[in-house]
Design goal:
Order of helices and strands: HHHHHH
Number of strands: 0
Radius of gyration: 61 Å
Shape: rod-shaped
Distance between the termini: 111 Å
Helix content: over 70%
Oligomer: single chain
Structural class: mainly alpha
Strand content: under 5%
């Protein structure tokens, strides 16, 4: 296959697809129905024209027959008057008129036959047009319903895709919220432990000093206990009572420091 033929085939294929996409079957059906109505109208006009011609011939026949009857009556009157020559002339004219009537009758019969054919064709065409109209409306209704269903399906498909995106957005929002909550909890723990200073509320300097003194007392008590273990001094009574507690209370520290003071 030559390059030009291949290009021509490709062009025709693409053009056919484009036309198929642009074509609306309902419009095509309506156009076809309109064309059939126009054809039916032409057939009816043809029937009317033939019927008119037949009627005109019928009038001519009636006029010719009346003329023939008149010539016959003239021939009789001429014979009654002894004018054979006039009677013969009248009969000759009647004979010519009768020949015309015979031709007109042949034409009339032909026109009548043609009219009957066209009338039958018109009736058959009318039946086909009526049937096509019913089928056309059925196809249009089915196509419209299918088109609406397709739009609904496409809408549902779009909603499904949109809901998928929304689901991802919700998941991301939930993850970010969880991270923020974890971070807030960590900050609260750091503030509670004193690792971070809370600048949002009012500071109580007296309580801060007491907390610092309590921490120093705990350190002094632990120092006394360790010296006693190493034999460098007597064990404080409060330390013995508390055993190996890692964090002695501030009250025990004060009980130790009141008798002997810091070592």
């Amino acid at each position: 296959m030559s390059v030009m033929k291949r290009l021509s085939m490709i062009f025709k294929s693409k053009a056919n697809k484009a036309l198929d996409k642009m074509e609306d079957p309902r419009e095509t059906l309506d156009y076809s129905y309109q064309r059939q109505l126009e054809l039916l109208q032409k057939v009816r006009r043809g029937v009317a024209d033939v019927a008119t011609s037949r009627k005109r011939v019928e009038l001519q026949i009636n006029q010719a027959e009346a003329e023939a009857a008149k010539r016959e009556q003239q021939a009789k009157s001429a014979l009654s008057s002894g004018r054979e020559d006039l009677a013969r002339e009248a009969l000759n004219r009647r004979s010519a008129i009768q020949a015309q009537v015979a031709d007109l009758r042949i034409q009339y019969n032909n026109l009548q036959g043609e009219e009957e054919k066209l009338t039958l064709a018109s009736q058959r065409l009318q039946a086909k047009v009526d049937s096509f109209r019913t089928k056309k409306e059925t196809i249009k209704a089915t196509y419209t319903a299918a088109e609406a269903q397709t739009r609904i399906n496409e809408a549902f498909s779009g909603i499904s895709e949109e809901m998928g995106d929304v689901g991802l957005a919700i998941q991301r929002a939930e993850d970010k919220t969880a991270q923020m909550q974890a971070r807030a909890g960590a900050i609260d723990e750091l503030l509670a432990s004193g690792a971070l200073d809370d600048y949002t509320g009012q500071r109580d300097d007296i309580q801060s000093e007491l907390d610092r003194m309590g921490a120093n007392h705990d350190v002094e008590l632990e120092m006394a206990r360790m010296k006693a273990e190493l034999g460098q001094g007597p064990a404080p009574q409060s330390a013995i009572e508390q055993g190996q507690q890692a964090q002695p209370s501030t009250q025990h520290t004060q009980q130790y420091r009141q008798p002997g003071g810091a070592q």
